[in-house]
Amino acid sequence: MTALALPGFHPDPSICRVGEQYFLITSSFEYFPGVPIFTSTDLATWTQLGSVLDRPSQLAVRTGIENASGGIYAPTLRHHDGRFWMATTNLHEIRDGHLIVHADDPAGPWSEPVRTTGLLGIDPDLSWDEDGVCRLTWSDVVNGGISQAVVDPLTGAVLSEPTEIWRGTGGAHAEGPHVFSRGGRWYLVVAEGGTAHGHMVTIARADAPEGPYESNPANPILTHRSTSDPVQSTGHADLVELADGSWAIVHLGTRPRGSFPKWHTNGRETFLSGIDWVDDWPVVVEDRFAPAIRGTDLDERFTGEALGPQWIAPGAVPSSFASPSPEGLRLRAGRAAAASAAERLLAVRATEPFWTAALTGEGDLSLTVRIDDEHQAMVERVGGTVRARLVVGPLDQVLGERSGLGPEARLVIRAQPFGGQPGQRQGPDRIVLAVESAGVLEELASFDGRYLSTEVAGGFTGRVVGVEALGADALVTRFSLAGE
Question: Which residues are marked as active site?
Fold first, then answer.
């Protein structure tokens, strides 16, 4: 079975190795900071170092439903000549070209971005040949297919005319290219079929990085389309040579649940498989690695000097409104209590299928689980009243409420097994909105979790769980998120 490497909304992985250490990045879309970066020495335990784009001067993100699943698309991470390089596309600024940054230390700081003006598309890749010539390869949104040009990665200058090097095998949306060399040959790995049930990994090879590329007769080398595998939508891959000379492949996938047609809730996640080489073509071995070691539960009092690297915000810079202090997390005023669109939501990715989140604090606060502004559920405290609220598209409804509660009451959201009788139509989970007071948990409302799934909401992200101050500044004294 395919090994899960990074659970939760961590799509479009790119990986590189330096000595015995591996580094991996993923897409971040409208969330800030952008492009989380992880490190591992065994490919099983991953530690987040931070994010590549962690300053407003490097990344502009935007709030609102119209900007959901915009922002940062499919980055590439490479190490060349003693330096780390990252290339990506900010969809909000696609006409400015791809952006490239570099760093001597993967934990940062990373440079200010340069732009490859005139190269329109997404999913840029960087590769260097034996002469040190750098090529940028990307999914061309103007002409379709995969295009390539010589660039100066320090300045972004485009040094050659773009040329198309491959159109894939005929699947929809040839994208996510990565170019690498092995044994004197050059390989181009591509995602095709769209990042849903038809997703697949295809590969071609050439004698030079610019081609011409011949397609692997065994393509696709990885796909779960038309299978009952619990991991679906496998694709968008990157390959890496391991320290012992063997090879591995990272790729995205989803874990849909429930009855037909099934729903996935935590987004596209990162998986890991092995690679064997047969006749100079890669063959994927899905059961080579053990699943990732489950991460520790989060229990935050926010009394440190800075937020941990796991904290993100849609369309906003967390440090601009969230400040740890000896008393807890001080939040500047976010959306008004009657509004639903997030303005200053501090969140973390949901990584487990089932979990419980809880929040205590002072002031008017919202504990929120969301995919976007039109697909979210909240337990909100306004004065002495706690209410359970659900937003699905144009529908915004209070499902239940409890009055007369003090500030010590905990706001609680649970994602739990759907329940019900066997054979019933079941969603992926059931979301329970509750409040706990004097040690007693009171359910205010519950609903089918499919309404907070990608199949309903659309887009490229997954569930996040977070907190927002409603209309005035507030204090969070404890936030917890525990898998079940």
Answer: 12, 175
